[in-house]
Amino acid sequence: MAQSDAASKIGPDGPEEAEPSRDQPGSSEGAAFAKTREALAGLGRALARLGRALHEEVPVAARRAGEKSGAAAIGAIERLGRTSNGKSDSVALAGRSASRWVKPRRGRTEDHRAEPKRPSGRRTILVRTVSAAALASLVLLVAVFAWALRDVPWDEIAEGSLKPVVVLETADGKPLVSQGPFQGSYAVRADFPPHLVEAVLAREDRRFYEHSGIDLRGIARAIYTNLGAGEVVQGGSTITQQLIKILYLERDRTWKRKIQEAVIAFWLEHKLGKDEILTRYLNNIYLGAGATGVPAAARIYFDKEVQELSIGESAMLAAIIRAPSQLNPLTNPEGARQQAELVLDAMVKGNRITSEEAKVARADFGKLQPTSPAIRSGSWFADWIMQDARELAGPYRGTIKVRTTMVPRLQAIADKVVADALRREGGKAGVSQAALVAMTPEGAVVAMVGGRDYTKSTFNRAFSAMRQPGSAFKLFVYYAALKRGLSPFDPVEDAPIEINGWSPENFGGGYSGVVSIAEAFARSLNAATVALAMEVGIDEVIASARELGIDAKLADTPSLALGSSEVNLLDLTGAYASVRAGRAPIEAWGIESLHAEGQPQAFRVGPSKEAVTDISQYRPDLVALLRLVVERGTGREADIGTLAAGKTGTSQNHRDAWFVGFTEPLIVGVWVGNDDETPMKDVTGGKLPARIWKNFMTAALAEGTPEQSGAQVAGSAPACNFRACARAYRSFRPDDCTFQPYYGPRRLCEK
């Protein structure tokens, strides 16, 4: 009866043969035949789907050749996932996502109780051959997927945009947009205005919210269009696929990458959802001019926050996604406008905006003038501080806003005075480069210029260049003398002196005999300075330099007194800041505070409140000596008509020239020279460097002090110094600035 019932079962497409029981003869052949039938069924359904996408009709018989091959392939992928060393979820999810394509027909059941029909010998051979081929194909498919997916960075994909994105800000909280690559704050989905999202979807993926990561209809449309045009004029990749290409996979067009892209696309759609995929895409797409992400492009091209973009601006940004280098609005505004017109047309056609809104946006194109923000000039400063910023941001995820000490107004003044001086005097003086550093008495760097032109050379001559300071080093000799009990009025002999065959000479020749220490310093007398250094001891001179913050290698030789050992401008300026402050060392710093996304408050980074050496008892004499240089000595060209103190410096054969000095609110160091160390044309520290110093200081003080400009904001953040706390406590945790005491719960570090 069971056999009769099974034989009489009729499905929608005709009689269906009963599946043999496992314990009946011929069951293996029957099972193999069933798997073969399933494999053919999956192929038929795949062909049918592609046919529908291409608007072609695939015969019904082809679709019904077998219905369970998709399930077999999916099962193989899921089994591969369960055995792929930690990647089970990823591959299994890909299989389950693919299962949406293959859905078994309802109303069909198999009667395992039915008696099997014994196949004939010829049919048995055919079944075994086809079964073996199907199983071999299945094994090959599994092997190909295993090979293609073995090196997919699943963990990295899961983290995605949570990786730290460091955003530098100026002292007044504005974005510090440097030359070169720039990525703004990570924006959440709600930050992007609706018309921007609609513009991007109209341009890149009209069916984004309808497909499952791969748009078969879009692929079919692209194939049809490209065949009609005879060339590739349209692509079929979705925003999900573009995101995968941008962040996770190599750009090579290989079968391996295509398999990876398809599986990851399904997995991302299941794992993240549409809104998160779109958010990551908008934050990471490259839009030209060094801008990564729409927030960065909004700042670079329009100097706006992303929330402030108009419909026209949004259309222009969407228009340049496909060719950001060729359609960069800064270099090709007309091309960008033409493409933006096409985006507006697509938005109207898709009912994303009204015709009236598009008309208003087109009218705005006439006055739309993309322009770089003025604060892009602080590039050397950004380069200098970025390494520390990334180190501090290490334990965090998401956007890390780093408030720096750079004051845009002072940075702009520094850029201008250096550029003007080199343009006006550089040629005739044989000077090709210059550097300038300006800081507050606490060591906060408010402006930095590292050379003549950042676009031609990013080398930072204010920080990375080690050069001989010449007489600017004499500060440490006279500081050592004051510590030995000498006073500015004590005598020192300026006369020929020979030490192991070396005889220092004064600039211009001749000697002055017995002079006061103050006169020797103001006139920068070399012979008198060396004699004084030998009296107090070279080791004491080195100790004094170390005390004021000089970390460079210093040679224990008599010529050290005249600046024969190399230092950098930043450290030397910091040493003069120590004199101005009356405590040492004053170390240059550029990060005020750090605020991580998701953290309730920012944490102060600098300056450190750790104990320093009190040099206030020597400060009046040192300041008097430095003022004498400006008023009556070698630095008279730096006189600004108010309190000013400083020291000139010129290395041997005029290879380097310096002026470092301070007023009440600012300490500024200037260096000029050539990268190849060729001599300048009689340039000394009292000439071109002193004039650059004067021009900067005059302009800087004309509009108020740095405090009035917004540089001092550290007091608004909790007192937690990352570096000081890390040195003090082994248990220090940067993400919340706490440490574990011997007893009780964790506590906030307040150093």
UniProtKB/TrEMBL annotation:
It is a single-pass membrane protein. NCBIfam families: PBP_1a_fam. It comes from Sinorhizobium glycinis. Residues 1-35, 84-120 are annotated as: Disordered. SUPFAM superfamilies: beta-lactamase/transpeptidase-like, Lysozyme-like. The lineage of its organism: Bacteria, Pseudomonadati, Pseudomonadota, Alphaproteobacteria, Hyphomicrobiales. This is Lectin-like protein BA14k. Its main location: membrane. In the C-terminal section; belongs to the transpeptidase family. In the N-terminal section; belongs to the glycosyltransferase 51 family. It catalyses: Preferential cleavage: (Ac)2-L-Lys-D-Ala-|-D-Ala. Also transpeptidation of peptidyl-alanyl moieties that are N-acyl substituents of D-alanine; [GlcNAc-(1->4)-Mur2Ac(oyl-L-Ala-gamma-D-Glu-L-Lys-D-Ala-D-Ala)](n)-di-trans,octa-cis-undecaprenyl diphosphate + beta-D-GlcNAc-(1->4)-Mur2Ac(oyl-L-Ala-gamma-D-Glu-L-Lys-D-Ala-D-Ala)-di-trans,octa-cis-undecaprenyl diphosphate = [GlcNAc-(1->4)-Mur2Ac(oyl-L-Ala-gamma-D-Glu-L-Lys-D-Ala-D-Ala)](n+1)-di-trans,octa-cis-undecaprenyl diphosphate + di-trans,octa-cis-undecaprenyl diphosphate + H(+).
